[in-house]
Design brief:
alpha+beta; single chain; about 50% helix; about 10% strand
């Protein structure tokens, strides 16, 4: 971008902010910075953040992304951070119209961050928090040695997806009381609902673990052989992943919302003929169907447009219908009100499950496929099965669901885990490698129960060997 174009960009930012507010977008204060490729791709390697702790995986990510940019295989046009104020980094190689599109896109992202309930518990001061985390880890490297800290980070990052973003302490849960009847009719029967119908005491159960779906938190609380500073590092990793988790689970909804609005905001600007052509080319590249993957910009855009169209469609004029067109009373006044309401509540799974229709599946040519032998084969095109397959792949951000069953299995100090099998088997090589990393944190035997070839199987690692039974 030329230096003399910066005042024009500043003017465009003001105009876009004005139009966005008039159309109903409500973004926090925005801060824009224009950066060279090296800086933008460094930020991209750090997950979009200006600073993070040192780890080899970030260098690996930078090398991959920067190489793709150098060979014109991909390009990062912008990065936006979920903070207050909201920071956006623009690539200085962008043309003026490209940056105008990016600014419009960013305003919609910021609106989504601010209003979507899945971001409600994320910290808005994460820039300062990650800077403090990096400083703490540098101190630990100085005290305990770089290799020891790096090994701990390797293990923590291997299971960083195994967190429960909705976990709350007992004291935080609404309506929490010390004892609750196990049977809803206990007061009518006039007897102790905790007793069995035969009159005896109920069988003893394994102690319930509140953090069962949050492996990182369970390790922090129950791994007796971890030192305090090691637990601190795992807690810091968990805090960072809690910040990133909503971005993983709302990728389609977030990018679809931003694409929907950058198209409409750019229509309100007085673009030159050349800018209109360039914008059209860039926008077409953003929403073009990919070969063997899902384009979140395209799918999210078409979902919001289809929802708006359906809620606007009535026989007697405006006054929308429900998604199924089956309710007597409309849920929303019109389609625009409908999509604003849905941007507050939906993530990718709920948006696809509730609003991906047969017509959209056919229009977007969505299908399921798998590798059979040495070939990739389309396995399903029936729209409901395609929808359900996509939702399944996106559940929990795509991470396997694993729960902690026992932290002292059979009284031997074994950490027992269970894979919540949903029809998809775990990759056995990854399973064994990850189990080894968990064992390096637990420092006693770790076992995981899963399903392989239709049969229940348990894999274990004791630090010396890995085995299954």
């Amino acid at each position: 971008m030329k230096k003399e174009e910066i005042p024009l960009l500043e003017e465009a930012i003001g105009r876009i902010a004005e139009v966005a507010a008039r159309m109903g977008l409500d973004a926090p204060p925005m801060r824009f910075e224009i950066c060279p490729p090296d800086i933008v791709y460094t930020l991209g390697a750090y997950g979009g953040m200006p600073t993070r702790f040192a780890h080899w995986s970030f260098g690996k990510a930078y090398n991959r992304m920067k190489t793709q940019y150098d060979f014109a295989l991909s390009r990062i046009y912008e990065l936006v951070i979920n903070t207050d104020p909201c920071y956006a980094y623009l690539l200085d190689q962008n043309s003026l119209i490209q940056n105008k599109l990016v600014v419009a896109h960013v305003y919609a992202h910021a609106d989504f961050f601010k209003h979507n309930l899945h971001y409600a518990r994320t910290r808005r001061d994460m820039l300062e928090t990650m800077s403090r985390t990096a400083a703490v880890l540098r101190d630990y490297e100085f005290i305990h040695g770089k290799e020891r800290v790096e090994k701990l980070l390797d293990a923590g990052l291997a299971i960083q997806g195994q967190i429960d973003p909705w976990f709350r302490e007992e004291a935080e849960r609404p309506g929490n009381i010390e004892e609750q009847p196990s049977c809803p009719y206990a007061d009518l029967w006039g007897e102790d609902a905790t007793r069995s119908r035969e009159g005896g005491d109920p069988p003893k159960k394994t102690k319930e673990i509140p953090e069962a779906r949050d492996l990182l938190l369970a390790l922090v609380r129950y791994a007796r052989h971890l030192e305090d500073w090691e637990k601190d590092v795992l807690s810091l990793l968990r805090d960072e992943m809690l910040y990133f988790r909503p971005q993983i689970t709302t990728k389609i909804a977030n990018e679809g919302w931003a694409t929907y609005w950058h198209q409409r905001l750019l229509r309100e600007l007085d673009l030159t003929e050349a800018e209109t052509v360039e914008y059209s080319l860039l926008n077409s590249r953003i929403v073009q169907p990919p070969g063997m993957s899902l384009n979140p910009y395209l799918v999210g855009l078409r979902l919001f447009e289809d929802i708006e169209r359906r809620y606007d469609r009535t026989e007697d004029g405006p006054g929308g219908r429900t998604a199924a067109d089956g309710e007597d009373e409309p849920l929303f006044a019109d389609g625009r009100e409908a999509i604003f309401a849905l941007r507050e509540t939906e993530n990718d799974c709920s948006l696809l499950r509730n609003f991906l229709t047969k017509e959209l599946v056919e229009e977007l040519d969505l299908y399921l496929y798998a590798k059979m032998g040495d070939k990739w084969v389309v396995t399903e095109k029936e729209w409901e099965k395609v929808r359900d397959g996509l939702v399944l792949d996106l559940t929990d951000g795509g991470f396997p669901a694993v729960e902690v069953v026992d932290v002292d299995h059979e009284g031997k100090g074994t950490l027992a885990l269970r894979h919540l099998y949903d029809g998809r088997e775990l990759h056995l090589r990854h399973l064994e490698k990850t189990l080894d990393q968990v064992q390096s944190l637990w420092r006693r035997t770790v076992q995981l129960e899963t399903v392989v070839d239709g049969r229940t199987k348990t894999f274990a690692c004791d630090g010396n060997r890995s085995y299954s039974f």
